[in-house]
Amino acid sequence: MERALRGIAGAFIIISVLLAHFVDSRWLWFTVFVGVNLLQSAFTNWCPTMLILRKCKIK
């Protein structure tokens, strides 16, 4: 599950940076959102994406 979580977070960051570059710089706020979620999950050991991965039965 941790590998899936890191993969999803990495993909979201890459996609949002590309969108910021090619579409609109306000997409960088999505990058900030992902980074803040990763930071808070490091301290709380809870992430909303983990709930989704558990419901999808990803281990």
Task: Describe the protein.
- It contains 3 helices and no strands.
- It has 59 residues and is mainly α.
- It has one domain.
- Helix 1 packs antiparallel against helix 2 (28-44).
- The radius of gyration is 13 Å and the shape is elongated.
- It starts with a helix and ends with a helix.
Number of strands: 0
- Looking at the chains present, what oligomeric state does this protein adopt? single chain
Indicate the percent of residues in helices.
over 70%
The tally of domains stands at: 1
Low-pLDDT runs of 5+ residues are: none
The number of helices is: 3
**First-residue to last-residue Cα separation:** 5 Å
Rg (C-alpha, Å)? 13 Å
Shape: elongated
Biggest beta sheet summary: none
Q: Taking all residues together, what is the mean pLDDT?
A: 93
Secondary structure category = mainly alpha
Q: What letter string, H or E per element, gives the SSE order?
A: HHH
Taken as a percent bin, the fraction of beta residues is under 5%
Keywords for this structure?
single chain; 59 residues; mainly alpha; 0% strand; elongated
Chain-wise SSE layout:
Elements (H helix, E strand, L loop, with lengths): L1 H21 L5 H17 L3 H8 L4
